[in-house]
Amino acid sequence: MTSNSTVYKAPTAPGTDGPPLRPLRRRRPASPAGRPGRTPWLYLLPALVLLGGLLVYPIYQLGLISFLEYTQAQVSGGEPATFQGFGNYATLFRDSQFWQVLLATVVFAAACVLATLFTGCALAVLLTRVRAVPRLALMMAALGAWATPAITGSTVWVFLFDADFGPVNRVLGLGDFSWTYGRYSAFALVLLEVLWCSFPFVMVTVYAGIRAIPAEVLEAAALDGASQWRIWRSVMAPMLRPILVVVTIQSVIWDFKVFTQIYVMTGGGGIAGQNLVLNVYAYQKAFASSQYSLGSAIGVVMLVILLAVTLVYLRLMRRQGEEL
Question: What is the C-alpha separation between 55 and 28, in angstroms, rounded?
Fold first, then answer.
């Protein structure tokens, strides 16, 4: 007898007698939409570990010492370190000299940042207007100033403006005028040296950003009759805003922490400390007076101020809709 039952066969690929087709499985996405996953953090992990060792631990030690009584007696092991709480900060905030130095530091740093940004941006625009040979000469001169160590540049500037042998006084006919004797003239001299060694970073960074702007945009603005200042203010600056944020924050951090230029050019802070800034003031408290806890407290205050300025600046940029 023959069976009337039929045998079911799974469907095969069209036009072939090969194995039957298998149903396709939908693959899960690697990560939810809008989330990059863990892969970037794995790449960043070695750098984060290195930064943690170089930054987090020293900051922890700085904060710890600021809460202790830590003088030469504790360093030598003659007396144990005792916990003072916020006593060092209270002593610091009651010191009128601290507030004078803080105000001088803020004003001096603000002047340095504004001068550096203005000079760097102006020279960056100039680089786009000159020919290849002058542009190369200006770039090499600027990079030479940038690469000069701070202590070397400060020593050279002190010689250039020396009251007895400096060529600047002879050219200007100032006789034996001492730039480092007066408070404001000394700050002005240090500002010029800080500007000289800081503007190349702004110039090179902004110049690279300008070169990335499409030439058609600048040509259209020029054809509309816009002046160079209007092109910078209305076209270049908005497109360069992320770059300007970076160079501004870097300049604030560098200029607020100026130490070498003030210490070398004013002989440790000027006559009777008239040219002190917070970094030099902390150095004097910690090493000249052996009050390491007060010096650490000044360092913590500087850290908090810089973090606050950076966060406020970034918040303002985000409110304006910038991608940072």
Answer: 40
